[in-house]
Amino acid sequence: LLVALVGWERRRRADEPRADRWLLGAAAIYGVMLGNHTLTVLLAPGIALFVLAVEPAIVRRVRFVALCAAVLVGTTVALYLQLPIRAAMGAPLVYGNPGTWQGFWYVVLAEQFRGDLVNPFGDLARKAVDFVELASGQLGILVAAVPAAFLATAIRQPRFALLTGTWLLVTAWFAASYTNAAIDRYYLVPLLVAACWLGVAAGMLVDLLVDRATGSPVPAPTEGGGPRLVAGLLGVLLAAGLVLPATLAAPATRAKVDLSGDTRARDWSGWVMETVEDGAVVVSWWSYSTPLWYRTVILGERPDVRVLDDRDRLDESLGTVDDVLRATVGARPVYLVRHPSEIEALEAAWVLEMIPDPRGQQPLYRVVGPRLAGAR
Q1: Are the beta carbons of 245 and 141 closer than 8 angstroms?
Q2: What is the CA radius of gyration of the chain?
Q3: pTM of the model
Q4: S-S: 167 plus which of 46, 140, 245, 285, CB 3.0-4.6 Å?
């Protein structure tokens, strides 16, 4: 998306006749993004400001604006239509009830997560400090150069600075107030923006050094001469300097982020499939349902086992875990994968047999039957 927008800006400034194709391409790319994750709507304010800054008169090009909107909306709608189509085909895993009009909008508008944006305009100072600390951990010593890099970008590429600066502010503000899921990944956009600013600033620094060393500005790429050679050498040295901190930290970073040897999900789900009885129902929740679904749906293991997730209970109106047990125990073997606090509450009404995981991860609880009144 960034490449398409910048490409459109450059061709628009050069008054190329095919410049509009780049903006149409950006609209299509953005449509794919919206169809993949609704929160990419956070990029919309920056895109709108950028387009208006590049071509203020675009508001009078009604047909072209309508065409861009049609490409964007059409792409998004085409991707979302696979939800009701899959549901109608009887896909083994369907999120929500997209086969109904109400259920379709429930999924598209992410109704499940409504209310997770908490106090967005409060405690902004603390949120800013937390963001700086996160950026420091990700960028190391280069974080100190980011403010100056933004100013350099604003001088050399003001429209690009407007686009990316808006992206950084809006995304970081939202992530700091969003209380759902592993939120760290939402900061990838601000970190990408910071890296772009550092690159622009590095380019300006190379030009300045060449100017001081040769007494003449860096020539255009089509021109020759010593300044261009000096600029190339300085660019390589500066790039090496920027990459050096990451290179030095690579061994420690690899040890921290490399999960290729983490087989916990595979080992645990395999143990569950070997442990549960024929025709069992496993009442689970998202983090543990996912590897179990992978084995039953993707790998085709244990087709007799049903993994009943909290999402299934909601979509199929099955009620609470206790309601599921009352409807299932006696008809099929039932196992629980629940948080310890839930197990404690369920044991008041049900006799549960804990089956410990031999690797010390999440245990299974086999539901023996209802607890008799007064029994412990």
Answers
A1: yes
A2: 28
A3: 0.75
A4: 46
For 216, other C-beta atoms within 10 Å of its C-beta total 12
Alpha-carbon separation of residue 58 from 2, 5, 49, 54, 115 (angstroms): 19, 15, 12, 9, 36
Instruction: Please write the tens of the pLDDT for every residue from 246-258.
Output: 788 788 878 888 8
Q: What is the DSSP string of 50-109?
A: HHHHH-GGGGG-HHHHHHHHHHHHHHHHHHHTHHHHHHHTT-S---S-TTSHHHHHHHHT
Using DSSP's 3-state secondary structure scheme, residue 118 falls into coil
Query: From CA 267, how far away is CA 291, in angstroms rounded?
Result: 10
Residue environment code for 292-329, b if the CB has 16+ CB neighbours within 10 A, otherwise e:
bbebbeeeeebeebbbbbebbbeeeebeebeebbeebb
Take residue 243 and report the two structure tokens written for it.
Answer: 């990459």
Q: What confidence tens digit (pLDDT) does each residue in 134-169 have? A: 888 888 888 888 999 999 999 999 999 999 999 999
DSSP helix/strand/coil, 331: coil
Q: How many residues does the chain have?
A: 376
Distance CA 201, CA 208 (A): 11
Query: How crowded is residue 282: how many other Cβ atoms within 10 Å of its Cβ?
Result: 24
Strand order in the sheet with 350-355: 306-308, 281-283, 334-336, 364-370, 350-355
Paired tokens of 359: 């690797």
Give the number of other Cβ atoms within 10 Å of residue 176's Cβ.
Answer: 21
| Contact of 19 with 63, CB cutoff 8 Å | no
